[in-house]
Each structure stands twice: as C-alpha cells, then as structure tokens.
Amino acid sequence: MGRWAIAVHGGAGIDPNLPVERQEQAKQLLTRCLNLGIAALRSNVSAIDVVELVVRELETDPLFNSGRGSALTENGTVEMEASIMDGTKRRCGAVSGITTVKNPISLARLVMDKSPHSYLAFSGAEEFARKQGVETVDNDYFVTEDNVGMLKLAKEANSILFDYRVPLIGCAGAAVNDSPLQMNGLPISIYAPETVGCVVVDREGRCAAGTSTGGLMNKMMGRIGDSPLIGAGTYASELCGVSCTGEGEAIIRSTLARDVSAVMEYKGVGLQEAVDYVIKHRLDEGFAGLIAVSNKGEVVCGFNSNGMFRGCATEDGFMEVAMWE
Amino acid sequence: MVGWAIALHGGAGDIPMDLPDERRIPRETALRHCLDLGVSALKSGRHPLDVTELVVRELENHPDFNAGKGSVLTTQGTVEMEASIMDGKTKRCGAVSGLTTVVNPISVARLVMEKTPHIYLGFDGAEAFATAHGVETVESSHFVTPENIARLKQAKEFNRVQLDYTAPTPKLPEVSGDSQIGTVGCVAVDSAGNLASATSTGGYVNKMVGRIGDTPVIGAGTYANHLCAVSATGKGEYIIRATVAREVAALMEYKGLSLTEAAAYAVEQSGPRGCCGLVAVSANGEVAMPYNTTGMFRACATEDGYTEVAIWPKN
Predict the structure, then answer these.
(1) Which of A12, A224, B200, B240 is surrounded by the fewest CB atoms within 10 Å?
(2) Residue B99 touches chain A, beta carbons under 8 Å
C-alpha cells in the first residue's frame, strides 16, 4: 500500500502589496480545502474523487478565480472552464464557456464519465449539463462586487488584467504602471490569475489532477485558456498528476502539465527534478506555477512567478500552506 | 542550411482499399494539387506559417475532406469547425473552435495568434472576432454536402457516434466506402529551419454540439517547436489524452529519438490500432507520415526531389 499525497493551489503570481487580510483569507481557504482532501484520503476515497471534491470547494468559495468569484469577460459576464484527468487510464474530461453550471469541475468529470467525448464547450456543454441534471444558476450568481470593480479598473487600464485582488483605492493606479509585463506582445498591468487546482495520489498509487478557472479579467468572449486543455493546464498519468496556473498562453505553448510527466517517463527522473526542469526550461519568458504529485507519494510545487497560493500534505504528517518562496 | 520539406494529410481512418475510383481519384488529385501549391510557396521563400495556412485553406475549400466545406455534421445536422496553427521557432500558436460561418477556419486561428493576446477562441466569441476582422463568412449551408447528410443519417440509425470505440459493437457498414474521416493538416520546414504546423476539421459525424476534439488543442492535434512540426488526425479523444503531436517532439528532445522513430512511437502509443496518424517534418528537412489505421490520405515532398501522394501503405 502506497502513501497518499495532496496539493492544492489558488493561482501563481501574487501582488507583493496584497493586503494582509486577503493573504489570511487565502491561507484559510487553502487550509480548509487541504483538510477536506486529507479527511477523504484517510477514508480511502479515490484520487479522482478527492480531486473533484476539493476543486468543488475552491469553486464554491468566492475568494479565488473559479466558480463563484470568477474573473469577468469584457462584457461583465462569467465564462468558466475546467478539466480533470485520471492518471490510471489517462481518462480525461474538460469544459469551456460554462455560464450557469455551479461546479464546472463536476461537469468536466461527467464529460469524462458519461459522454463519448473528452471536451464539451459553450451551449453544447450547458445542454449536456441540463440533460445530466447538474445544478445550474443564473450567471450573476458567479459575479462578485470585487470583480465588477476589477473589470472597471482593467478597462480603464485598457489592458488584459489577471484576476487581481487589490482594493480599488490608492495603490491600484500606481501598481498598474509598476510591472510592464507582456503577454503575446501586449502589456499586462497586474499579474494574479488565481486559477484553482488540486492534485492527488491515493494509497493505491493512483494519480489524478483537476484545474478550474474563470480565466483572464476582461478577456474576449470565447477566450479559452490553459485550464481546460489536457496537457497544458492539467495532466495525469500512471506516474504523476499535475495542475498548472499562471500565464495561460505560456502554459499552452509549453504543454507544461504534460511535460512534467514526459520528462519523468522519457528521462527517467523523479518528480522534483522533472518539476524543476520544466519550470526552468519550458516557460520561455512566461510566468507560471504548478503543483504535482507522484505515484510514490511525493508532492512538489514549482513556480517562477512572484509567489503562488498553495498547500500540500503527505500521509506521513507533512503539511504546509504558503504563498511566497 | 538544410532543404525544405512539406507534408500534408486529408485524414487517417478506415479507408477501404476498394474505395471506388470516383471517390479516390478526386482526393488524390486534390492532395497532389495542394502539395504542388505548398512546394511552390516554399520554393518562392514563403514562411512555413504562410505555406501551411495556404495548403490547409485549399484542403478546407475542397468538399471531399472533413474540414471547411465538406465538414461532417453534428448531431443537429449543423457544422462546427475547429483549427489550430503553430510556429515552431517562437511556439506562438492560435486555435479556434465552434465556427459555423467562416469559410477558412485556419485563417481565423492565425488571426487569433497574430491579432489577439490570446491563443484560443471558441464559438460565438470566435465568430464575432472573425466578423470583426472582415474574414470571409457564408451561410452555414455552404459547408454541408449531401454525402455528409447521408453519413449523419447512417450514424443516427446506428444511434451512436461514428468511430465510437468504447462499445464493442459490430463494424458500421460504410457509406459507399467512407473516406471522409479525420482532419486535414499540413506541416512544413524551410531551408532556414523555420517550422510550422496547421490542422483543421469538422470533427466527428454525429458529435454532440459543442464537442471539441484534438484539432484545436495545442499539443494534441498540432504542435511545432525548434525540432519538428506535427499535425495529427484520427480519434480525437485518444489524441488528446496521449498529447500525440507534443509526444513526437518530446521523444526527440527527451529520448533523443529521430523524427521517424519518434513519430512511429507516438502513433503506436496513442491507443489501439485504428486510432491515429500524423504527418511531421523535422528542422533537418526530414518527413515522417506514420499511421495505425487502414489508410491515411497524405502527400509529401522534400527539396531533394522526393514526392509522394498516397492513401494506403506502399506494398
């Protein structure tokens, strides 16, 4: 019997001026989610089920950028996406353009388990959700006041804004000009995407991964990021489970989640080395982070961004919730 | 300085060896024509991004391949097209899904790559973007062909998604030799080692509305980096989970395999027999076109004069 391990994340790239109370809220949420996952693992719930229940919790809480609390499109609406993968047979499911389903990760799971396909989007996905009797709500359920404010800020700055949770008064304006990060040649004001994810290896050595997000603040309607793309934001194999967060376009270009597994499979290295390698060598000029578990019960986090909201725990009692290096 | 190379495909699948002439010849002619177009462009020094885009546009316009006009139909009898394109040197990429009125989805994928800060746009958002950029659009009925209406009817009669490998049911009888499967794609490398890959499709017959396959998923149906460019075709769900296109490059990078070895291995490992094929070129001007299906509509050419247009394995 192997040992279980679990990791959760709430996004890579944190504003160094993030107010202390926000930092505390984030840590509390991560801790709560980690404990949920740990309790399930102790009761021998399978990796894929643990991933789903933990990501559901992250989606339901409005703090991070997924489910309720998702970043807003340029039209002020919410379009969510998610993917989930079961390492055992590399089965996977993904959804994009979700506007009424309360828990996109569960819909992704249904796509994997109950449809002949791997990826459903927009009205087709919503129709599938209705047929499956999944819980749906109006789109405004997902919209928070904070994010309405953020969107306004983003439009004023006339740039793509990652989900940036800083008070609207004071430093926001200055911060907008502070970091001239670029993405596909266009300036980004602030960097804090807060996609959520969870990776788990259970006592049977089965790995699973899941990722969920509302995407970029002020994104174009229909924009799809890395989170629902198998191989980019999410991947799981017999060896590991990986969930990524950060600059979506960089994660897609570098097929980041897949590469962790590929490096382990083809170079024969362990999890830590594989994660270090991809973070160092695969991201070009992009900023991102990831959490990963191996079938040996290891858990690793890696990021080249300014911090990453994360938490991890292993069966031998190790537990850590952190934000910075 | 190495030579240029180009390879293109019109889909891998269970293409029966007794495909009637009237179905085989137009497709072979089209493949040859597209190959000539691509070779011409490479010889005039066009960048592989331009070359692959123009070849795929040509394949999209041809009604006998499952992309653009001639796309297979969703369960509602509509067309939902998707495509992606990737530049090997910079790894910039663009992808679209759920297009219903755009004549050339691959060109919209390219616009997403070049004119937005994003990589992938889908459905209404993609259509709106296309319209805003003055891309050529038509009535959706333009894309629907009588053969595809027949295919959909047949698939519905069997009440399952065509190419649905999950249930062990008897083989579908083909609609007079079902040669309209898979996807179209093109990969190219120029003498400076610039690489590009482009793929486009209508998806699966009788697919659920909103179903996305491997074609627009970077790393699955399309991939290019400094070593190679790959375009895959076949059963989308397998290609996604095996990240087939990325796999070829990963095997070259991490295991030091040659293009031929990596491409063959990637196809072999992707799933059971009959699930995929791909075309690939390397920075060194090599070409590989492996498939584990009965056949794959394909063509390739290299600067040293080699050309090939084929459907089944060479005997």
Answers:
(1) B240
(2) no
Number of A/B CB contacts below 8 angstroms equals 165
Is the entire prediction scored with pTM above 0.90? yes
* pLDDT score recorded for residue B88: 98
pLDDT category of residue B159 using cuts at 50, 70 and 90: low
Using CB atoms, which residue from B92, B119, B122 is nearest to A97? Answer: B122
According to the annotation, is B234 in a ligand binding site? yes
Residue A184: predicted pLDDT: 32
Structural domains present in chain A: 5-142+189-322 (3.60.20.30)
Q: Give ipTM to 2 decimals.
A: 0.91
- Chain A residues 10-39 within an 8 A CB cutoff of chain B: none
CATH superfamily, with its number, for domain B5-162+180-310: (Glycosyl)asparaginase (3.60.20.30)
If you write DSSP's letter for every residue of chain B in order, what string do you get? Answer: ----EEEEEEEEE---TT--HHHHHHHHHHHHHHHHHHHHHHHTT--HHHHHHHHHHHHHHSTTSSSSTTPPPBTTS---EEEEEEETTT--EEEEEEESSBS-HHHHHHHHHHHSS-SEEEHHHHHHHHHHTT--B--GGGG--HHHHHHHHHHHHTTS-TT--SS--PPPPPSSS----S-EEEEEE-TT--EEEEEEE---TTBPTTB--STTSBTTTEEE-SSEEEEEEE-HHHHHHTTHHHHHHHHHHHH---HHHHHHHHHHHTSSTTSEEEEEEETTS-EE--BSSSEEEEEEEETTS-EEEESS---
Domain layout of chain B by residue ranges: 5-162+180-310
- B256 at the A interface (CB within 8 A)? no
Q: Which residues in chain B have their CB less than 8 angstroms from residue A262's CB?
A: 246-247, 250, 254
Which of B122, B166, B250 faces A222 most closely, judged by CB atoms? B122
